[in-house]
Amino acid sequence: MTDARPLGAGVAGAPSGGWRTATVAGVRRPVPRSVQLRLDVADRVDHLPGQHYVVRLTAPDGYTAQRSYSIASAPGDPLLELFVERLDDGEVSTHLADVVEPGDELEVRGPIGGWFVWDGETPALLVAGGSGVVPFVSMLRTAQALGRTDLLRIAVSVRELELLPYADELRAAGALVATTREPSGIRPAGRLTAADLVPLWEPGQTAFVCGSASFAGAATRLLEALGIPAESIRVEQFGPSGGPA
Amino acid sequence: MPTPTRGFLGRRRERDPRLPPGQYDVGADWPVLTAEPTPRIAPETWSITVDGRVENPTTWTWDEARRLPPSEYRGDIHCVTTWSKFDTRFTGISVDSLLEVARPTAEAQFVMATSKTGYTTNLPLADVTGGRAWLVWEFDGRPLTPEHGGPVRLLVPHLYFWKSAKWISKLSLLTRDQPGFWEQNGYHDRGDPWRQQRYQGD
Fold it and tell me: What's the pLDDT tens digit per position in B55-69?
């Protein structure tokens, strides 16, 4: 059997940074069960859109817990913006959502990752489920700063519009928003379909898919069914698989 | 020790000694993390090749691999995204069984594992020999699902789980270390969870 060509670096030489102290500059809760943190990171290494950061919390006895979160801000933003979905059984996300206040200090590490990264030049189709939009917000803001929003096509699926982070920003940028539990404009309630994605797809695009494991699986199958080659699809998944299968 | 985070006590006061630093117990879940679409590979089209710095480059089909001595792993697995899963049970064959046939040459020091998808990951040879690495096709007595790397994945449970390449198709023996896919994208060349070797430079 023949193998696909080797997967390489997504963006060669993507930046990476070590541990830094971040001061919380802003805390907002624009959608339920989540928090948007604006962080002033000392000696920050500029990121590329799509990269992520690790946040580490330390208890008085030295116990630590750390998790990764996507960056929503563009590299040129003087602050680093992370968007965190609050998981009821989450040890880190509950602290970030419920306890953190402006002026707090947090240990952060980043940027990290070189695969799920947009280079600012390649046409891209961005397909997100729910809070999977966060790295795409960074890509969109970067494209706006570069004056190249023409390079991006965005499709988002969410249960209800009010649960969608950055909904206004995404819709203003022309993102297609599919709501699965309520109609969205003239679009009836329902998941993303091939008919939604066909008008957004152009040869030469890299497709980025971000969301839960089940969303990412369904979305990549949809893209492959449209004829998008597997090697042009980059996936970032979060959350459980739905059991040990 | 870093400065404590204001207001953070941590939830788990009785820390399981099986948990490496910075990890949490994911319980019954088994998160799926991939960078690419999940391929559907029929077992009859799958094969495993051992090549590179070996005296006897060899390819085994599904049926041939299943005739090698069965070997089982019972224990824990650790993902760099900070979940660990206890008491897993994987069934397959030991990588030692393949290397006994292929016979690495004296200068072979590293392995590049390649998947059907083109995913790669690099490992020191010493980490896949001596009963520390497997090719597995069953999890808890059931066929390994495509999402988890089925029909066959590499299993190197003493290293972070990205080293356990899904949809494994080739092990190439090398004289020098070369970065694989995640390793080119910022992750550590060895990935020992007990040393928190998560990223390059750790």
Answer: 999 999 999 999 999
